[in-house]
Design brief:
heterodimer; A: mainly alpha; MetI-like fold; 26 helices; globular; disordered N terminus; disordered C terminus; B: alpha+beta; Rossmann fold; 2 domains; six-stranded mixed β-sheet; five-stranded antiparallel β-sheet; 24% helix; elongated
């Protein structure tokens, strides 16, 4: 057996010993409990196939030329082609403006909701949640109804009220895109910061007030700096989501004649597909994502931000006096713009016989919903596909998630940290890029089937299972499991009798959430779907592309409803705290 | 060599975590029906030893034998579920999603015992720990003390070969802890269960143990009955760790091999006689340096003059009234000595002498 006392102790030597010991431990473990180790190994192999393989292919394709040699030509072409370059600029613009907008809205709202006596806090929190939960491309359709240059309702109203020459607002622009994305992502900042504020020790603020600082000054100079980590987290999430956004840019950009990187990737995959170029566009996004996550980890690791003192809870709310109504007014305007208006627009649109017709009862029909039941449309099939995919994805993600969480939290297997890293990689990976990787990797075997969509969904949703289940298992004391072993239970029996029942809530929440986000998945589905394997989101897009906005609206209403319903169910199962994700 | 009556045997048991030798080659034998306590400070290896016996840790060296059979070595290990042991964890680990009955019955359910037998044995077990009537409650509805009894009932229901307890009383509040100490000891004797406890609480060890194993830094300092551990510590560590001690370092002036006594020259007063282990005393040469364990009880204040040990001048620095006694801090030549007296009918200047029976020579 290798000794553990090494005099020379060079780093590589130490690593080598560590791994040979690890391998020896592993073989011992396998001999003792073959079932446990087989299950875990299978899970890891699946992870490699789902994640490592496509990601590796993506990188490989970006640096390979048609003859198979290494080249930087793809990247050079990305830089040189005007359309790609302008897409890059647009993406960068999104990456800056959207987070800014989200901070401008989210920070004041978080403060108002968390630290003041503004009325209607529950209303604001609930509807901000709805704004986030409804996919961005669905909200976009609502906005198209309202702000399309000629037939948009708001435009027509403004033109007739103010006797304007031309419609003042055009949603099919970069400005429109930024607006829509900010309206969708500001809850990220709101929830991250308000969670931090909720837990903050109120005595910091009280000390400032005591010394004579006014309410606003206290908020700006004391409160805000104390929640910097949350602000940073929220902002970074906004940046990443803005860069990876596909639905809204596609809905607005194709019609408006502009591109961002994600929509460019999509067009590059259309016939004839230029995989190498698409990969070369996708890889920088991936690196940038990784860099952002790295910066966040490093920055947050540095400072001293402990404000969680356990004396949290009923902090004295700042009294805004008469201003509290103004605060509510502000929040209400944001809620209206982010939820009420677009959803109303969407709903009305779904009932109109034609987009642009005046809104009178004679023009309201249920016809658009009939496509749900009409076989000649793809809608019914797409709903079926969506449900099949979502149920299977949720179920299998949860099962695999338990295995991965077990490896990371309950074993000493050497190298288990890499499981966490791989899983978190897919979390940050833009969906469109993952779609390209999966397409390249599995096109030969799974082309045209639901399976290739299944693989893509799994790859991207596993992190959700991992995060929720990890939280769940961390709350289970290992002694509870050990007590079962001592009483005579084998490893598998213990997991079945003790671990899984105690993780029940986490398991259900994870399942419902993954089901929900799978239902509305767009970016990968659009890349991978073929006639017969469309999902609901793909159906919406096809209708949009064909100009049948009203039909698209009808399906969107269904998706919006399902999105909200599943989150309500998840909350009911979980109780309040369980949905917070680090 | 196999001792027919031994329940547990540790032979050169070793475990390291990285560079730290948590358990550094220890030997120990526990007889059937015996109650043994592993006592020591944090990090001494007692919990690692216990968990190795339980089967949650695989040794890096040495062997563990249960009922004469090898159950663990560095290359082979019998998993916990096959060892027929019972274990009570520090925070009880009663399953919150199962009733008291289901908790206690678990081991029997796994063994697929007939329903009537399970019922009988569970009820008997609950009776033994005085929890009859609570079998349908959930752990969340029980107090800490009650949960601990559930854990105990659960551990003994399957009549295990041996019972392991990891700091069983440390999560209870003080009053309950004292009460439970006696109950545990009584239960253990009644069902004649071989038990291995781990604790850092010396009083607990003194009450619970037939033999105490004092450990530090992965090694065994001394294995002996409680009285021997207290009155006749084998090493400096044991003398210091268990109870209060005024250890005096001095030199050998004379030895009385027949009576096992040593005359110690010290800096706090005239030389005094102390007792010691016969073989240690026999090997001492004049002028050698030795340490003497002087318990508070060994110091007599203003006592009658003894021929053996002359009085030593002392000053009372502080005194605390503890109800049934006074706890004194004496100043002798600049060093603090602790002792106890039933009454304080003297002033600050006293003289003390050391009882040779109770002063014990350590190495």
């Amino acid at each position: 057996m290798a000794t553990t006392t090494l005099d020379s102790g060079s780093f590589l030597n130490g690593l080598g010993v560590k791994f040979s010991r690890g391998w020896a431990d592993f073989r011992l473990g396998y001999a003792r409990e073959p079932m446990k180790y087989s299950l875990l190994i299978t899970a890891v192999i699946i992870l490699a196939l789902l994640v490592v393989y496509p990601v590796w292919l993506l990188f490989q394709f970006s640096i390979v030329d048609p003859k198979g040699g290494l080249t930087a030509a793809n990247y050079i072409e990305v830089m040189q082609r005007k359309d790609l370059f302008s897409a890059l600029l647009n993406t960068l613009l999104l990456g800056v403006l959207v987070p800014l907008g989200c901070l401008l809205l989210g920070l004041p709202m978080a403060w108002m909701v968390s630290r003041t006596n503004m009325p209607g806090k529950l209303f604001v929190r609930a509807f901000a949640g709805i704004a986030f939960v409804i996919p961005s491309f669905i909200g976009t359709i609502g906005w198209i109804f309202l702000m399309a240059p000629n037939s948009g309702l708001i435009n027509k109203t403004l033109v007739s009220w103010f006797n304007l020459d031309s419609p003042p607002l055009d949603i099919f622009t970069m400005e429109g895109l930024v607006f829509v994305l900010v309206m969708h992502f500001y809850p990220l900042v709101l929830f991250a910061v308000s969670a931090s504020l909720d837990n903050m020790d109120p005595s910091y603020e009280e000390a400032a007030r005591n010394l004579g600082a006014g309410r606003l000054r206290t908020a700006m100079t004391i409160t805000l700096p104390l929640v910097t980590p949350a602000v940073l987290s929220g902002a970074i999430l906004c940046i990443l989501d803005a860069l990876a956004a596909f639905g809204a840019p596609a809905a607005l950009g194709f019609a408006g004649g502009f591109h961002v990187l994600t929509t460019k990737i999509y067009t590059l995959i259309l016939h004839p597909p230029k995989f190498e170029l698409a990969a070369a566009v996708a890889v920088p996004i991936v690196f940038f994502t990784a860099a952002c996550l790295f910066v966040q980890k490093w920055w947050l690791g540095r400072g001293r931000y402990t404000t969680l003192t356990g004396k949290a809870g009923q902090a004295r709310a700042t009294d805004l006096g008469a201003w509290r109504w103004a605060a509510f007014g502000f929040c209400f305007i944001v809620i209206t713009l982010s939820v009420l208006l677009p959803m109303a627009g969407l709903f009305i649109l779904s009932l109109l016989n034609t987009f642009g017709a005046p809104i009178e009862f004679k023009n309201m029909v249920l016809e658009n919903y009939q496509i749900f039941f009409d076989d000649s449309f793809i809608v019914l099939q797409s709903i079926e596909n969506s449900f099949i995919l979502s149920v299977s994805t949720a179920t299998l993600c949860v099962l695999l998630g338990i295995a991965y969480v077990w490896i990371v939290e309950r074993t000493e297997i050497v190298g288990r940290g890499s499981v966490t890293v791989i899983i978190m990689i897919t979390f940050g990976f833009p969906a469109v890029a993952m779609g390209v990787g999966i397409l390249i990797g599995y096109i030969n075997w799974l082309y045209g089937t639901l399976w290739i969509l299944f693989v893509a969904y799994m790859a991207k949703k596993i992190p959700f299972a991992f995060i929720f289940l990890r939280n769940a298992i961390k709350q289970i004391m290992e002694e509870l499991e050990e007590a079962a072993r001592i009483a005579g239970a084998s490893w598998a029996r213990m997991v079945w009798d003790i671990t899984i029942p105690l993780m029940k809530t986490g398991i259900w929440v994870a399942w419902v959430l993954i089901f929900s986000i799978s239902l509305r998945e767009l970016a990968m589905s659009i890349l991978l779907a073929q006639p017969g394997t469309e999902t609901m989101a793909v159906a919406v897009f096809q209708f949009l592309d064909d100009g049948a906005v009203e039909h698209a609206a009808a399906i969107s209403v269904l998706i919006a409803f399902l999105s909200v319903a599943t989150v309500v169910i998840a909350r009911k199962i979980a109780g309040k705290g369980a949905l917070e994700v680090d | 060599m196999m001792d027919g009556n031994s329940k547990l045997e540790l032979r050169k048991l070793a475990k390291h975590f990285g560079d730290v030798r948590a358990v550094d080659g220890i030997d120990l034998t526990i007889a059937t029906g015996e109650s043994v306590v592993l006592l020591g400070p944090s990090g001494c290896g007692k919990t690692t030893t216990l968990r190795s016996v339980a089967g949650f840790i695989q040794p890096d060296g040495g062997e563990i034998l249960l009922d004469g059979t090898i159950i663990a070595t560095e290359t082979n290990m019998l998993p916990p579920e096959k060892r027929n042991l019972g274990m009570v964890f520090q925070n009880y680990a009663v399953w919150p999603h199962r009733t008291v009955f289901q908790n206690v019955a678990y081991a029997l359910v796994i063994q697929k015992r007939p329903k009537q037998e399970i019922n009988d044995r569970v009820y008997r077990s609950l009776e033994l720990v005085q929890l009859s009537g609570l079998q349908d409650r959930y752990p969340g509805e029980l107090s800490g003390g009650q949960q601990q009894r559930v854990a105990l009932a659960r551990a003994i229901v399957a009549e295990p070969s041996m019972l392991l307890l990891d700091e069983p009383l440390s999560n209870l509040d003080a009053g309950l802890r004292e009460e439970m100490r006696f109950e545990l000891k009584e239960l253990q004797e009644r069902i004649e269960m071989t038990t291995l406890y781990v604790t850092h609480d010396q009083e607990e060890a003194l009450v619970l143990a037939d033999r105490i194993v004092v450990m530090s830094d992965g090694t065994i300092e001394q294995v002996a009955a409680p009285t021997d551990i207290y009155l006749r510590p084998a090493t400096h560590f044991v003398a210091d760790f268990v109870g209060i001690n005024n250890i005096i370092d001095g030199r050998v002036e004379d030895t009385d091999r027949a009576r096992g006594r040593v005359r110690v020259a010290q800096e706090y007063g005239d030389p005094f006689w102390a007792s010691g282990p016969k073989d240690l005393v026999a090997g001492l040469s004049k002028g050698a340096g030795i340490s003497v364990s002087v318990r508070p009880e060994a110091i007599r204040v203003n006592g009658a003059a003894e021929d053996d040990n002359p009085p030593i001048d002392a000053k009372v620095k502080a005194s605390a009234f503890l109800g049934n006694r006074f706890d004194l801090r004496l100043d002798i030549k600049g060093r603090e000595f602790r002792c106890q007296v039933p009454q304080m009918d003297f002033g600050d200047d006293v003289n003390v002498n050391i009882n040779p029976e109770l002063a014990w020579v350590i190495a």
